Amino acid sequence: MRFSPERSFNKSDCTGCGICEKVCPSGVIEIQNGYPFFRIDKCIACGHCGVYCPANCFGFDRVPETEDICSSEKYLKLLEARRSIRYFSTIIPSEEEICNVLSVLSQSPTGVNKQGITVRVVRGAEAVEELLRPVKKLLRILDCTGISFLIGKLTGMSAYLRKLREGRDIIFRGAPVVFFFHVPRSNITGRTDGIIAAATVMHHAVTLGYGTLWNGIAEKLFQLIPSWHSSDTKGTRLTAVLCMGYPEMAPEWKVPPRDYMVKWC
Ligand SMILES: Cc1cc2nc3c(=O)[nH]c(=O)nc-3n(C[C@H](O)[C@H](O)[C@H](O)COP(=O)(O)O)c2cc1C
């Protein structure tokens, strides 16, 4: 799958314009005798040499026409319509549907194009219930030792813990699908890569009629619950947890705009 400029390059189409050399982020292309020479061992396989090649020497497919790309107005509407979902429908998306939601990961950028994102998918009410089991057990232990009382007081989460104790799933909110986004620990920008990937999936999910919920609580619990870990993700770190499913009810009104700051430096 990984792109190799050397393998894809078709010399007979090359005009020697040198654009590939100019756009290469790693400086691994040199024009020698009118043609690019690739120092392939340092190539990050970003594909930009091919993307900008006027003669399409690397045999890429054409990008969509501008009018087919989502407009700023439509993108803003997507953001206005997206809300965190805390009432999921019990309908379970099929594996094929989930793969379709995740397919945008093939377009998600990663630092120095290292890629390596793994999404562990927990699908179905029973599987999600299974995730909750050790959480409830942990809470029972903390209750017995009185530590949960202290945690509740210190974090302001007493009401949250009480609802959990009452058997309410206020962690996954009845979501039929939970995504755990993992990235290799060795990736220098791994944390950011994983967050971008999860945000990309979140937006794609909304365009397909699903809803999502970022799950900071599950992300924190991951450190405490060994049974959530898997040998598949050894050497990785968790960067985001996203619940997904059909929303049980659609938001009717827009949230008031949020504050942010712009500081000109
Ligand atoms: C990183 C992150 C973690 C979050 N964790 C949780 C969570 O554990 N439980 C929850 O109910 N909402 C969680 N949320 C959702 C936020 O509470 C929500 O985004 C915020 O209230 C704004 O609502 P909106 O997403 O509908 O715009 C999280 C959001 C983010 C960005």
Give the amount of beta strand, in percent: 5-15%
Bound molecules: flavin mononucleotide
Shape: elongated
Q: How many strand units? A: 6
User: Which spans of ≥5 residues are poorly predicted at pLDDT below 50?
Assistant: none
Indicate the percent of residues in helices.
25-40%
Quickly give the CATH architecture of the domain at 72-130 and 169-245: 3-Layer(aba) Sandwich
Name of the CATH homologous superfamily of the domain at 72-130 and 169-245:
NADH Oxidase
Mind summarizing the main beta sheet?
4 strands, antiparallel
* Terminal CA distance: 42 Å
Radius of gyration: 23 Å
CATH top level assignment of the domain at 72-130 and 169-245: Alpha Beta
User: What is the topology, as strand order, of the major beta sheet?
Assistant: 3-4-6-5
- Whole-number average pLDDT? 95
How are the elements arranged and paired?
Layout lengths: L4 H4 L10 H5 L5 E4 L2 E4 L9 H4 L20 H10 L13 H8 L15 E6 L1 H21 L1 H9 L2 H8 L11 E8 L5 H18 L3 E4 L1 H6 L14 E10 L20
Antiparallel strand pairs: 1-2, 3-4, 4-6, 5-6
Helix pairs in contact: 7-8
Flavin mononucleotide binds next to strand 5 and helix 10.
